[in-house]
Amino acid sequence: MAKITRRLDDDKGLDSSAYLKLRVSKLNEFEHNVVLIIDEIYVAKRAEYSAGEVKGLTGDGALASTLLCFMVKSVVAKYKDLVAMYLVSKLTASTQFDCYSEVMAMLRKVCLDVVAISVDNAATNRKFLVDCLCKGDLTTYITDSVTRQPIYLLFDPVHDVMNVYNNFQSRKEFKCPPMSRNLPAGCHAQFQHIEELCNLEVDMTLKKAHKLTPAALQPKSIKKTSVKLATSVFSESTRDALRFYAEHENKAEWNGTAFFLTPLYQYVILFSFSL
User: Fold this and answer.
1) For residue 175, with 0-12 CB atoms within 10 Å meaning exposed, 13-18 middle and 19 or more buried, which class applies?
2) Tens of pLDDT along 1-56?
3) Residue 16: is it exposed, middle or buried by C-beta count within 10 angstroms (0-12/13-18/19+)?
4) Which residues of 184-213 are buried (b: 16+ CB within 10 A; e: fewer)?
5) CA nearest 99: which of 43, 150, 40?
6) In percent, how much of the chain has pLDDT > 70?
7) DSSP-assigned letter for residue 115
8) SS3 state at 166
């Protein structure tokens, strides 16, 4: 925390050093595409005197109850940085939008391109997306006012994937309705295919579904919220293993489950910052 706060301007909370420019200068063109993650941390409402300064007060002198944090994570690389923290006494959608606008201006200045915004399902975040960004009508993306490029809006992606994983594991099958993209008409996915794949490779030294483990198939109650287990089922290697055995081991029915995992794997990529 000390290293972070030394980089941040006490009044605005923005990165006020050359640190961010230096970090970005080492990225290639593709790594400049980032997800902007917004999250709030609730803190004790108190002021402390330290090193000749009073900490814990907002710009207008009120006691802070929330740290509003902005983080960026490259879509195609491991690069990530905490770029801003704001002390807020009462977090509202309009306050969050003002902070967001400042952060976006800074990110454009250092040549980072935001392709998605990720928030959790808190009421303030929903209001921020619907009322401030989408002007009252929630859409899947907004258009950046400067670059004119789409910025996709993600609601709580970690819990989205966890809910799909828990339902798939407990209900054992999904019958998908026809969709114009991503899935073929009548796609039928069965969790049994994932179990059969794991059993097929259990004694193999080299496994195609190398991330898949027995713990992901029968998780203990305390492990049902494990992101690692969910992503092992929805990983690229699991999908590709299903496709391989469907083609070479006379298991054509596994194709439906492989098709089902494809969009989930793509979605997992977007929130890989949380792993």
Assistant:
1) exposed
2) 555 555 666 566 666 567 788 888 888 888 899 999 998 888 777 777 777 777 77
3) middle
4) eeebebbbebbbbbbebbeeeeebbbebbe
5) 40
6) 85
7) E
8) helix
Query: How far apart are alpha carbons 43 and 138 in whole angstroms?
Result: 30
Beta strands in 181-234 (DSSP E): 188-190
The pLDDT value given to residue 77:
81
Tokens for 6, please give them. 């030394």
Measured CA to CA, the distance from residue 237 to residue 157 in angstroms comes to 21
Q: How far is CA 125 from CA 46, 90, 95, 101, 131, in A?
A: 25, 13, 11, 15, 10
Amino acid, single-letter form, for residue 95: T
Neighbours of 274 (CB within 10 A): 14
Give the pair of three-digit tokens for residue 268. 């997992």
Q: Are 113 and 27 in contact (CB under 8 A)?
A: no
- Nearest residue to 176 (alpha-carbon basis) of 255, 123, 268: 255
% residues pLDDT > 90 (the chain):
14
